[in-house]
Structure formats: structure tokens, C-alpha cells
Amino acid sequence: MLQKEFKASLTKNIIGGLMKGIMLGFLLMMILLIMELKVIACYLSPFVGFVIGILFQIVTKSRNTITVDDDAVYFSRGRNKKYEFKFSDSQFRLSVHVQMFIFIPIKSRSLIVDTNGKRKVISCSFLSKKDCESLSSLIGQKMILFAPSNSNIGDSLTKKYIIPKKHIIQSMTQKSRVGLITISVFLSVVFLWVLISAAIQNKLDEYFMFIILPFLFAALIFGTIFICLQMKWRNIKKSIPDEVEIGIDSLYIGDKSYSYSGIDNMTMTPIKGGTDGFRRIIIDYSGEKDTYCFGFINDKENIFSQYVDMFLSLQGKLQEKFSYETL
To answer: What span, in angstroms and rounded, lies between the C-alpha atoms of 166 and 163?
Structure first.
């Protein structure tokens, strides 16, 4: 039985520790400034934050290992095997989310496992990007081996799926608005807390130069990044087709057609998995790549309930040209 281990990356642990250290150092600096310990706040708090952040990251993450063999995925901490997930009764997806660190977008990767009606989320922040890609690809290959055979599905039938495009867009818009409101409220609370603290101590000028002005600058940069993300969401919405038709010899998505013989490869988000939070079809056809979106993976409202049937039909139709979406 072949096994492949994915161990913690020292570089990733140091970077993760530095990010935690910056947040901790900023918090310590705020507390010390309020206590009027200016010298300690400026020189000691960043150093203490960095040291504690790096030590915490190394102690908690450096011994983590993910192992994949022919039958299962294992998560271990040191010599202790904490979790075992068998391919025969589990669904896997490597989720990628973009988080804002001050005003810098940071990708956060997690292995999400659905097994026996329960969900477990394993943070992959201790792995390098290369190892995450290899892990995702390997799990995708194993999932294909354990997937049900659909070789006879749709061989002589034409299937047509009407995509509830309007409802999918409404769901995406609502989620983006919730995110905007949450972040706006958080920034407003932090800003008001700093402003009130400065007013109580009668140090508005001092706080304005060292805290309030940088905070406003960071908020401006964040707003710019948020606008860019909204433009990305707009492009995703444009990639939602009105309908999909699986014909005998060709596939029709929206106003485009793809003959099965001309498709080099089709990558599709697994029924319960994928990356970036969206269900997608990616088609390599005649040297070009087209991407179509079908809403969120975690579709609690079950807006497009026929996705599972469409997935199985395309898997059976394309056979070796069909693959699971990975990183």
C-alpha cells in the first residue's frame, strides 16, 4: 500500500507566526498607550508580539501531518493519529478562502470532510502551496476511484437543465452584502473605540498622528480591495449560464456548443466539494478554457437541485476526459 505524507512547512509556520505577532503586537501597543506607557508601547510590544506569535505557531502546527494512502486520509499531530477518513464513506474538498490581513489579501486553505452526516474542517495553514496542490490532486484521483460507475448514463439520451440564474445571483448578492455590513460594523466599532479613548485622555492630536491616520489609510486601501473583489464577483455572475443541454454528440452551455470529441478535459466541482466556494465547470476545448459557475458549494437553499444529476451525467458521458476540480 502506497502512502504519501504532507508535513508542516517551516516557512509557512514562520509567516503564520509573524501575522499573529503583528495582531498581538498591535493589541499590546493599544493597551500600553492607554496606560500611558509610550516607550514600552513603541519598542517592546512589537517584539513581544512577534516572539509569542512565532512560538505559538510552531508549537501548535509544526508537528501536524496529513497522510494519504489507497483507502483513507489521516491527520496526525506528532505520533498521535487524531482523525481517519475513509474514501469509501467520505467526501473531501480543499477549500480556499481569501481573508484580509490588515489590507493584504491572504489565502486560507482547509480540508473539509463530510463523513457519516458529520463535517470536519482541518486547517491546512501549516502546508506550503505546492503541498496543498499535490494533496488536492491526489485526493481528487482517489475520489474518482471510489465514485460510482456511470458509464451508461446519458449514452443515448438528451438531458436539458434550466439554471435558476436569477435566484443564484440573488443568493450571491445577499452574501456579499452581509460581508460588507459585517466588516463595516467591525471597522466602525474599532474606530469609535480609539476615538473615544483619545477624547477621554484629551490626546486627539497624538492619537491622530500615530493611530487614527494610519487606520483611515488602511480603511481606504481595504475599500479599494473590496471594490476589486466586487468586480471579480461581477465576472463570476456573468459566467452563470441560462441552461445546459447534454446531447448525444455535443454539450451545449448557454449559447456555446462543445463536441465531446473536441473536449480535451472537463473539470467539475465534486458534488460535495471543490475550491473557492463555487460549483464550477471548466472546459478545455481546442486550446481554450471556458469556466461556468453554478452557485455556491454550500447551497443550503438547494437553489439548483439538479446539479447532482448533471454531474453524474457528464461524468458518465466524458469518462476519462472528466476530472474533479482541485486547487
So the answer is: 9
DSSP-based helix, strand, coil % in the chain, nearest 5: 50, 30, 25
Structure-block grid coordinates of residue 186: 467591525
Length of the chain (residues): 327
**CATH number for the domain formed by residue range(s) 4-146:** 2.30.29.30
Mean pLDDT, residues 44-60: 76
Q: What is the pLDDT of residues 29-38, one digit of tens each?
A: 767 666 666 6
Residue 107 three-state SS? strand
Q: Name the pTM for this structure.
A: 0.54
Lowest-confidence segment of 74-78, 105-109, 221-225, 230-234 by average pLDDT: 105-109
Name the class of domain 159-163+241-324. mainly beta
Q: How far apart, in whole angstroms, are the C-alpha atoms of residue 243 and residue 226?
A: 31
* Cβ neighbourhood burial of 56 (10 Å; 0-12, 13-18, 19+): middle
Instruction: Name the DSSP class of 117.
Output: T
Q: Is 109 helix (H, G, I), strand (E, B) or coil?
A: strand
- Contact predicate 187/212, CB 8 Å: no
Q: What are phi and psi of 261, to 5 degrees?
A: -70, -25
Q: Residues of 151-170 as b/e, b for ≥16 C-beta within 10 angstroms?
A: eebbeeeebebebbbeebbe
Distance CA 95, CA 111 (A): 6
Residue 291 grid cell: 469556466
42: its cell numbers: 513603541
